[in-house]
Amino acid sequence: MQMLPTLFVSHGAPTFALDPGLAGANLATLGRRLPRPHAVLVASPHWMTRQPQVTLSLRPATIHDFGGFDATLYTLQYPAEGAHLAARRALELLQAAGLPATPNADRGLDHGAWVPLSHLYPKADIPVFQVSLPEWLDADGAYDYGRVLAPLAGEGVLIVGSGSLTHNLYEFRLGDPRAQAYAAEFAHWVRDAVLAGDHPRLRQALEIAPHARRAHPTAEHYLPLLVAAGAAAQAVPASVIEGGIVHGVLSMDSFLFGADLAAMKGADANQALAD
């Protein structure tokens, strides 16, 4: 079976669901160009638990886990089916690695999952499940977490780490356009490390990258990038899915690990994986 690349997506603010901009358009193009997966796994900072959990919902609900936004957002649904067999396989992998992972039959899809997926796969016609991020993860732990889940990429599962390349909510609420310079500098530093396949540098980004603590006052929205990088079969090639900077401070760039997007040919790539 073809090995799928892995994906980090910047999911931005919940309003990304209504205002796709450059990032949404490029995710839609990516969804048409990638080989069609059997299922999608999403690791999101909006589901963090003491120990790993895996959703086994047959029809995961669309969770509107945010407040104070346009009322239209709360009417949106992402009616994808669950991915029971792939989720069970994820449980097996986590438990085999010595992690006390448990199933969760009731959990739906948080906005870190359904918002970017509404652009990547707008028909909601690919089964989706989530794996929680343990609260104790640090950068190395997140990378190793991805490595544990990596075999799924060879079994038709698209592994997605959904976070934000920059995530300073205080500055987001201020709406200061002057913040864009530092956000861009941090984003370019990470982009260079991704394209170079320099995963050790990615793992140290919150310690050594310019403006790292300003870009990420807390680490949880950066860790999904490391999950996706750790799950990749190979560090290079890697590709950037341009997203620009929105609200003056949120970098919306996403990264594809293990594939050269420029070399993909839509109709040839967008075929069902062979059994």
Automatic annotation (TrEMBL):
At the top level, the lineage of the source is: Bacteria
The protein's required cofactors: Zn(2+)
| CDD domains to which the protein is assigned, alphabetical | 45_DOPA_Dioxygenase (cd07363)
Matches recorded under Pfam families: LigB
Q: Which GO terms describe its molecular function?
A: ferrous iron binding; oxidoreductase activity, acting on single donors with incorporation of molecular oxygen, incorporation of two atoms of oxygen; zinc ion binding
Going by the UniProt record, its keywords in alphabetical order are: Dioxygenase, Metal-binding, Oxidoreductase, Zinc
Q: Which residues form the Extradiol ring-cleavage dioxygenase class III enzyme subunit B domain?
A: 36-235
- State the family named in the UniProt similarity comment for this chain: Belongs to the DODA-type extradiol aromatic ring-opening dioxygenase family.
PANTHER family, sorted: 4,5-DOPA DIOXYGENASE EXTRADIOL-LIKE PROTEIN
Name recorded for this polypeptide? Extradiol ring-cleavage dioxygenase class III protein subunit B
The organism's lineage? Bacteria, Pseudomonadati, Pseudomonadota, Betaproteobacteria, Rhodocyclales
